[in-house]
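Final paragraph of the annual report: two paired records, presented back to back.
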Amino acid sequence: MSSVPSVRPPGRPPAATRDQVLDTALYHYLRGRRVDVQAIAAELGLGRTTIYRWFGSREALIGEVLFLASEPLLRDARAGAKGRGARALLDTFDRFNRSLADAPALLRFVESERDTALRIITSGAGTLQPRIVAAIQEVIDEEVRAGHYDPPVDTSTLAYAIVRLAEAFLFNDAVAGMRGDVDRLREVEAALLAVPLPKSRR
């Protein structure tokens, strides 16, 4: 069967896709720009209503962008983790948390839009937290399936606890001196995973 080359009919070029909106929003975010729906719509030749129809809200769009930005950090953390079982999990989560704590775009976003950022990051009803929890659960499940880890509770609950701990230590400054303290976060996660650590000299 011979292939027939596709010929684009004359007239208006095809509209941008949902994925192109995500890519453009991610591009703006990683360069420290505000994720502005109107600006992205104008850049791609779309109406704002189209973007809102696809994503529901600006916060939902940003939630997807944050997940896209965090995926490679978790993947790299998992690839670089040492040991197996609980120790591999602790090393994975510690590497991931330190990457998030040092991510320039995330720091800029939290500093410039703190209330919005905290809503997006910590809301169980949003698009970000459930996907991060699912990704963390998959990391835990990999160790369970390999026979290297016997979790103290079901893995969905454990993953949720790990994520909420990270949110509290990395982004929530309600407790004095806790925000950004990745060393203390590692100690608490070690206790949760039952990984013995040398006593802290704090």
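The closing record of the year follows.
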Amino acid sequence: MSKLIAKIISTILNPLVILTVTPYILIVKETGDASKAYFWTLFSLIFTLIFSVIILIGIEKGYFSDLDISKRSQRPVLYTAAVIMSLIYIVFLFFLKAPVVLFIALFGLILGLIFMEMINRVTKASVHVAAIAAFATALTVGINYIYVWTFVFVPLVAWARIKTHNHTKRQTLIGATMGILITLTVYVIFKYIV
């Protein structure tokens, strides 16, 4: 039963799900315009769905073993595909004059992918935990400290990833650390330097 609960948590708090809701929250915070936030969320969802299809095709073709890309040796292909999709997304954002906050979030995503690839050369880090840690950090420091409660999802996702045998405690700790540090770095860069 606990393994089923862990699988459900892993699915609901999947990085792609987090990427789907993030544009709405960020744009509402920046612009206060819910209709603009809906538009950009739906637009971003198209890219998330395309990336999901790429993963499914990768599984079918044998590039990936499963939806979690559990094998460390397969992750460079995932990270490369994600960076390419992000760069294509940036081009669309530029030409469609997207809110600046989406460019900042995408910068953080690309930076995170680069660091995850570097870490992947040594050990596997939990992208699930990194994503939820980054999300909680962005909400807390970027929107309002009242969202500090969202950090309860970090150990919950870590537990789920360990329970489903996708990661070790060390790998979830690395993921959480990376998510928090990269988000804080991006926040400081764009809040105080740029």
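The chain has a mean pLDDT of 94. This concludes the annual technical report; the extension proposal builds directly on these records.
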